[in-house]
Specification:
DNA polymerase, domain 1; Rossmann fold; 44% helix; single chain; globular; two-stranded antiparallel sheet; six-stranded parallel beta sheet; 2 domains; alpha/beta
Length: 215
């Protein structure tokens, strides 16, 4: 049976919770460079943005941002699988979606480490493509990550959806002219998601069921 629907998944806040690993990696980098530490809620408010943008927003000077990013990645690589969890229903969401849709991942995380995480959770085989930060020039909310996935999968926009937890995901969908479902398991609140999509569900599994019922 051919699968007419394509579903692209975000990762952080949609399928996985890597908040502990992200916070620890940020604080480690501020330790390494002996900088004053931002508060956890300031870091969490930026999750979903590229790392260089996050560090700049947290007060790191432009010329030092990439040193912080490199230090972050070295630490994150060591701890990510131990300190990242699958969100409730995430595995079931991917399995259910695979029964009627072709699947991809579009994330602002580094693709290399995202693939390691998905393999760790034994989910990577469900996905045809994984578009990470290094695969595009312009990350979400730009259309490029979604359009790159669509191009690689050779599918049409008309039957393509993205499931994500932030306005970055919803904005990317708008810019790429595909449909989006927001979920409430991540970093943006209901009223924030409502500014960019009419479709909001409690989690990825409910989002998948919604897309299936839409035909």
């Amino acid at each position: 049976m051919s699968k007419a629907v394509t579903i692209l998944f975000d990762l952080d806040g949609t399928l996985i919770d890597s908040t502990e690993a992200i916070l620890e990696s940020f604080h480690n980098s501020f330790d390494v460079f002996d900088y004053p530490h931002p508060k956890d809620d300031a870091i969490e408010a930026l999750i979903g943005h590229p790392l260089d943008v996050m560090y700049a927003e947290l007060g790191v000077e432009k010329e030092k941002v990439w040193d912080f990013v490199d230090t972050y990645k070295m630490h994150y690589r060591e701890i990510s699988t131990q300190k990242t969890l699958l969100l409730k229903g995430a595995k079931e969401a991917v399995e259910a979606a695979s029964c009627f849709a072709r699947l991809g991942i579009v994330t602002t995380k580094t693709g290399k480490y995202s693939r390691v995480l998905m393999e760790h959770f034994e989910l990577m085989d469900y996905f045809e493509v994984l578009i990470g930060r290094e695969d595009v020039e312009h990350p979400k909310p730009h259309a490029e990550p979604i359009e790159r996935a669509i191009e690689q999968m050779k599918v049409t926009k008309e039957q393509c959806w993205i499931i994500g937890d932030t306005r970055l995901d919803m904005g990317s969908a708008q810019n790429a002219q595909i449909k989006a479902v927001g979920v409430l398991t991540g970093y943006d609140k209901l009223e924030q998601l409502e500014t960019l999509t009419d479709f909001i569900k409690k989690d990825a599994l409910e989002a998948v069921k919604f897309i299936k019922n839409r035909g």
